[in-house]
Amino acid sequence: MSNSNRLLLSIAGLTATGKTSLALKLAEEVIDSKKYKGVILISADSKQVYQGLELLTGADIPVSFTRVKHQPYDYFQHKTLPIQIHGVSIINPDDEWSVAHFRDLAIQKINKAWDKNQLPIVVGGTGLYHQQLLSADKSIYVKPNSIIREKAEELSLEELQDWLREIAPAKISQINESDINNPRRLIRAIEIAQAQKKRAASRSQLKLDHPYLYKMIAINADLEYLDDQIRQRVEKRIESGAIQEVEKVVKKFEDQEKTLPSFTAAGFSLIQSYLQEKITIKQLENEWIKEELSYAKRQLTWFKKYKPDCWLTVDSKNNISELIDDPKTLSLAFTF
Predict the structure, then answer these.
(1) pLDDT cut 70: percent of the chain above it
(2) How many separate helices (H) and strands (E) can be counted in the chain?
(3) What is the mean predicted confidence (pLDDT) over 77-102?
(4) Which of 312, 335, 308 is closest to 323 using CA atoms?
(5) Between the CA of residue 282 and those of 2, 233, 234, 240, what are the distances in Å?
(6) Are 11 and 219 spatial neighbours (Cβ–Cβ below 8 Å)?
(7) C-alpha span between 163 and 155 (Å, rounded)
């Protein structure tokens, strides 16, 4: 494959704006152009990796794709076109997953795609995944520390904050309000700080052959439109069985529910509260919508900070379907 064909496209942006739909449309256009032999879509979503929580996390695999059993991770293959989807519904809810795992998977698939004259497209709303793909911070490869994690289980939120403050005062002053009140992220920060202090070895880091050209497209939306889209999605997930999905997972892993990252997915704890009869179905729906909107605002802050190459904006008059059908969108995506 010539260097000029070693392109990498990222589709990022806010939740519920149609990122996957756009990626699939672009993939079909690439195949029609015959410039590439296929397209590899790689999910950059930190929660859609979990099997058994597909409805909750919105891991909607189109009916035109079938699951292919593969090691170490399954993937989805289009029934008639050379398009694959990787990184969705690939691990159990109690398995470990991190930005380092994502990066390793993505690099393997990207390099393999280039070797086969295929176009890799990274699509998803987890900003850290996009950011760390090309310029990884070595700290993401610091191994989990079982001693720290066992000790941390006995500590309160305030005690975890004090622990991080003691070993890395500069770090805790940089943490945002969300992370400083998140025990799991505090524990990870303690692990990294301790490893850096002791210069502990991290696991080996895969190398990404730098793309000849790279472009990130991010999708934005006005709040009124976003609220409506999120409301529709939440209602659909509840109707489709997200509550039963969570109930099944909680029952299977009830002894671990305080430590599993998969249980931090938006809507999970709210569904638990509903199952425990602490809130009504209407309260569940409304609070879940608020949670998703709050997440979208954090996504917007992230992507504005890292400045995508271009923004596409969707609203009630210019939704994702119309954007996809607009030839300008395609030319924007592939003007390198």
Answers:
(1) 93
(2) 15, 8
(3) 96
(4) 312
(5) 56, 15, 11, 16
(6) yes
(7) 10
